[in-house]
Amino acid sequence: MDIEIKLVSIHTVLAIVAGAISYLLYIGAIAGLKNEFLAVFAGLIILYLGGQLCERLFGKEEVGGMSGWLWNGIVPFFFVWILVWVILYNL
Question: pTM to 2 decimals?
């Protein structure tokens, strides 16, 4: 399988998890943790950790540096994360 497909797949799965966690933090489902900033911060931390994981799995050169991570990691993560968060919020 191509590296780009693997990167997008990993970041998409992590974005679904981040969207669910952000939703739980946003509505206050976790006792004492109702904060929009914390919800966004959790998503960004998951994004960063996913990027580090991909760099360690595939190597920095294979990922394509910042440009490769931007188009195959950050952009898909952001759109799926926001999509999941909004869908869960509107249920």
Answer: 0.90
- SS3 percent helix, strand, coil of the chain, rounded to 5, is 85, 0, 15
23: CB partners within 8 A, 6+ apart: 29, 39, 84, 85, 88, 89
Between CA 10 and CA 52 the distance in angstroms is 12
- Tell the residue number behind the tokens 């739980």, with chain if given: 24
Question: CA-CA distances (angstroms) from residue 58 to 1, 4, 5, 51, 54?
Answer: 12, 10, 12, 11, 6
Q: Give the list of residues 6+ apart from residue 44 with CB closer than 8 angstroms, or none.
A: none
Return the DSSP state at 33: -
pLDDT tens digit sequence for 55-75: 999 988 888 888 888 899 999
d(CA 32, CA 66): 36
